[in-house]
Amino acid sequence: MATAAETAAMRQAITLAARGLGFTRPNPVVGCVLLDASGQIVGTGYHQRAGGPHAEVHALRAAGEQARGATALVTLEPCNHTGRTGPCAQALIEAGVRRVVYAVADPTPQATGGAVTLRAAGIDTEAGLLEAEAAEVNAPWLTSVRLHRPHLTWKYAATLDGRTAAADGSSRWISSAEARADVHRLRAEADAVLVGSGTARADDPHLAVRGIEGARQPLRVVLDTEGTAVRPGARVLDGAAPTLIALAQDAPDPGTGAELLRLPRAARGGLDLDALLAALHAREVRGVLVEGGAGLAGALLAAGLLDRVVGYLAPALLGAGPAALEGGGISTITEALRLDMTEAVRVGPDLRVTAVPTTAQKEH
After folding, report:
1. What values do phi and psi take at 32, rounded to 5?
2. What is the rounded CA–CA span in Å between residue 298 and residue 296?
3. Is 291 among the residues known to form the active site?
4. Given 6, 56, 77, 291, which residue is catalytic?
5. If phi over 0 gives left and psi between -120 and 50 gives alpha, with beta otherwise, what is residue 157?
6. pLDDT means per 10 residues in the chain (364 residues)?
7. CA–CA separation, 155 and 100 (whole Å)
8. Reported pTM
9. Within 13 Å of residue 295, how many CA atoms lie on the same side as its CB?
């Protein structure tokens, strides 16, 4: 049974793991904290980049000789295979760690088995401490492993009455400067940012990360079925981040110079979303931030592809204008997508609400 000190250390390990978001693809984010026999922290680490040392190795190096007899708190089961780095289970054994507590079991066939190896070496091993919290931080990677597609977060900004623009189409700015800065954090944590043709035409979005030092730029993806929404000179073509334009197989080349992704058309119009996600997954995209628009969000909802919703609610009313969501295939209240709210925090004058589909709906 985990102690209070171990629980606090695991919570710190989860915070450390989050530092790797946006940098480790296609690998998971992982954090590790080492405690000595008295419950004092002697080493910490997190997985900083793909191909670099894993969290456990960073923590062991920080602890040095103090790792002997220590307890390791790790957000993901220590790996049991040799890839670009060696197996972490073996590194923990060689360092003389006495006990290992991990939050989430590794679901990948090539890396699983670390706990078995640790136990075979006589190390006390416990699983499941703060599992839900650790899984939430690692949701993009876990989704990609379990569903073989990227994890999708839909982000939107709206007034309290659900409007994303006024009746005349004006929308700058509904949300505050603080909320807009927070969106750049979401972009920095994602592997790709996705918008539809309507947003590309109406807003000429930039979609790159700004104001975050050291951030890795996500792939900017525009769904432009007919190849007419992104024109030469569009902000998304400025070179600040890589750009991919997805269009129908029979659409003309828009002549933008950007990389093109040809996709089949969907039966009900637009592009085949499953084909899009398969193509992004093949590019090692694990987390996608969907920034617009209402029609694209509705199509993803109807296809059962939304994994998380982040809404920035501004304390304002418009009374008319576009809604945050269009379509979705829902015609009656019993068909509503029910969400579990995981967070509600104030960002400047606005409220940021984060929610995920309920467990029953996700399993369905």
Report:
1. -145, 135
2. 5
3. no
4. 56
5. beta
6. 94 97 93 96 96 95 97 95 78 96 90 87 96 96 96 97 92 93 96 95 93 94 95 94 96 94 93 97 97 91 95 96 90 91 97 86 44
7. 37
8. 0.92
9. 12
Which residues have CB under 8 Å from 279's CB, separation 6+? 246, 261, 263
Q: What is the pLDDT of residues 56-70, one digit of tens each?
A: 999 999 999 999 999
What amino acid is encoded at 123 in this protein? I
Question: For residue 341, how many other CB atoms are within 10 A of its CB?
Answer: 10
The set of residues, in sequence order, having a beta carbon less than 8 Å from that of 103 and lying 6+ positions away, is 10, 13, 14, 74, 75, 76, 127, 128, 129, 130, 131, 133, 134, 135
If DSSP states are collapsed to H, E and C, what string results for the chain? CCCHHHHHHHHHHHHHHHCCCCCCCCCCCCEEEEECCCCCEEEEEECCCCCCCCHHHHHHHHHHHHHCCCEEEEEECCCCCCCCCCCHHHHHHHCCCCEEEEEECCCCCCCCCHHHHHHHCCCEEEECCCHHHHHHHCHHHHHHHHHCCCEEEEEEEEECCCECCCCCCCCCCCCCHHHHHHHHHHHHHCCEEEEEHHHHHHHCCCCCCCCCCCCCCCEEEEECCCCCCCCCCCHHHCCCCCEEEEEECCCCCCCCCCEEEEECECCCCCECHHHHHHHHHHCCCCEEEEEECHHHHHHHHHCCCCCEEEEEEECCCCCCCCECCCCCCCCCHHHCCCEEEEEEEEECCEEEEEEEECHHHHHC
143: Cα separation from own chain's centroid: 9
Rounded CA-CA distance 295/303 in Å is 12
* Owner of token pair 């904290």: 33
